[in-house]
Every structure is written in structure tokens, then in C-alpha cells.
Design brief:
Elements: E1 10-13, H1 19-29, H2 38-46, E2 50-56, E3 59-69, E4 76-84, H3 93-107, E5 111-117, H4 121-129, E6 133-142, E7 147-154
Parallel strand pairs: 4-5
Antiparallel strand pairs: 1-2, 2-3, 3-4, 5-7, 6-7
Length: 173
């Protein structure tokens, strides 16, 4: 199994041409809930939110999105989504995407929030390793399944950090 921390994984600004693939991955990853459509991803990009894709051999294998509001010292960021093709899970792709998002939040010195299914122990552990703590519970957050979510928070960084193990560029759509 390839570990993308040591091979050619590129994290780039998400390309509009990849939104169909994002919607396809959503349907695979979240079939019991309300997976995002092409138009939902397009709306996020149109609103100027920060979205990146994980690419290997020019193929999109994961995506992530972040919204930042306000300015330091009161800025807040919210991780909107992280998704990785099931074939590529467990190889560092989600970690690379998260680190890229956190580097962006750190540039703004933003406290970062996210919601995660309470039964997604793998993701919860990854978030904890990156400084998040559980601060709340949202009953029946995910619909239509009714699954609960933890709200997690990561304090604002005192100084911007670099995105470890990733390369971020401004790729056009």
C-alpha cells in the first residue's frame, strides 16, 4: 500500500473541472446522508471559500474545503468537508488535506471548528492529533440518517504554519 506522505501526492486549489468527480466521491462516501452535488461544490467555490484537491497522476482522489470569517484576532474557520476516495484511505491523503486547510486557517490566526460523525473514530483521532478537542454534541446532525456529530475546535495558532507534506499552487479551473 502506497503512503502518500512519501510519494507524489499534490494538493492544489480545486479545479472547477473536478467538481463532477467531487460529487461522485460524495455519493460513494456519504450514501446514507445528503451527499453534495456538483452545484453545491460550485456554490462553495463561487462564494470564495478555500477548496483544495488531492491529486495523484492527475486524478482527483480527495478534496477538502474551509471557510474563514473575520480577521485576527477574532477570525474563525470552519472545515466544511474532507473526503477521500475509499481506495486511497489510510494512506495519508486526509492528513495532507487537513494540514493544508490548517495552514490556511493559521495564516488568518483563526480558531478552527468542524463537525464529525460520533462514530468516525479514525477521523476523530486524526483531528485530535492536529490539536482539535471535542467541545459539543449535535444530535441528529447528519440527515437523513440522523447520525450525531461532535463539534470540535482547534485554537488559533500564534504564528502561521507551513502545510506539511503538501504542495499548494494556484491551479486554474
Amino acid at each position: 500500500m502506497t503512503d502518500y506522505a512519501t510519494t507524489a501526492l499534490r494538493v492544489l486549489k480545486l479545479r472547477r473541472g473536478d467538481l463532477k468527480r467531487c460529487a461522485e466521491l460524495e455519493r460513494m462516501l456519504f450514501p446514507g446522508d445528503d451527499p453534495w452535488s456538483w452545484s453545491a461544490f460550485a456554490a462553495e467555490l463561487d462564494q470564495g471559500h478555500y477548496y483544495v484537491g488531492a491529486y495523484t497522476d492527475e486524478r482527483l482522489i480527495g478534496y477538502a474545503g474551509l471557510a474563514v470569517v473575520g480577521r485576527a484576532p477574532h477570525a474563525e474557520a470552519e472545515v466544511h468537508t474532507i473526503g477521500v476516495d475509499p481506495v486511497h484511505q489510510g494512506r495519508g491523503v486526509g492528513k495532507a488535506l487537513l494540514r493544508d486547510l490548517l495552514a490556511r486557517a493559521d495564516e488568518q490566526r483563526a480558531t478552527t471548528f468542524l463537525e464529525v460523525r460520533t462514530d468516525n473514530e479514525t477521523a476523530i483521532e486524526m483531528y485530535r492529533k492536529h490539536g482539535f478537542e471535542i467541545v459539543g454534541l449535535r444530535k441528529r446532525y447528519y440527515q437523513p440518517s440522523g447520525a450525531d456529530a461532535h463539534t470540535m475546535r482547534r485554537p488559533a495558532s500564534a504564528a502561521p504554519t507551513q502545510a506539511a507534506e503538501t504542495v499548494t499552487t494556484e491551479a486554474g479551473g
